[in-house]
Amino acid sequence: MVVQRYCLTASANSSFKARQGHAVQLGENGRINQTLRGTADGYWDHILSFNLAALNEGCAADSHAAVNVSVLETWKVFFLGRNLSRDMWERYAFYMGGWGRGDSVNLEIASVASNSGRNGSSCWPVVDAFTVKKEWDA
């Protein structure tokens, strides 16, 4: 099985042209995996935040790009709403649970099947700007 993942650069026909940056489009069966390790300085609650967009305006209007985020046997599917504003990015957050003191957890962000856009292109999700923040759990 081939896992599809594309690095995208800003262009005139992409939804992130104003950002002048890079993002990742998760194709069919596309996924990002990252192992995160807790620190020895205590037990922390962790929150993941990220941006989600459709590849272009046709996809944003006709389908709902979505990703499934999972960690520590917890998961949630995030759907891009019908955001037809100039900046089609939406920001999401996911509570990853509490861990630390040398714990190791696997974070996975995976594409969810979607309909085709107006031009018949695949409307797989585009993700960007991942941040994991920790907060002390007393």
TrEMBL record:
Cellular component GO terms held in the UniProt record: extracellular region
Subcellular location: Cell envelope; Secreted
Superkingdom of origin organism: Eukaryota
Primary location class: other
InterPro entries per UniProt: DGR2-like_dom, Pectin_Meth_Modulator
Keywords: Glycoprotein, Secreted, Signal
Ranges for domain DUF642: 18-133
PANTHER family: EMB|CAB87702.1 (PTHR31265:SF28), OS02G0527500 PROTEIN-RELATED (PTHR31265)
Protein name: DUF642 domain-containing protein
Organism per entry: Sesamum radiatum (Black benniseed)
Classification of source organism: Eukaryota, Viridiplantae, Streptophyta, Embryophyta, Tracheophyta
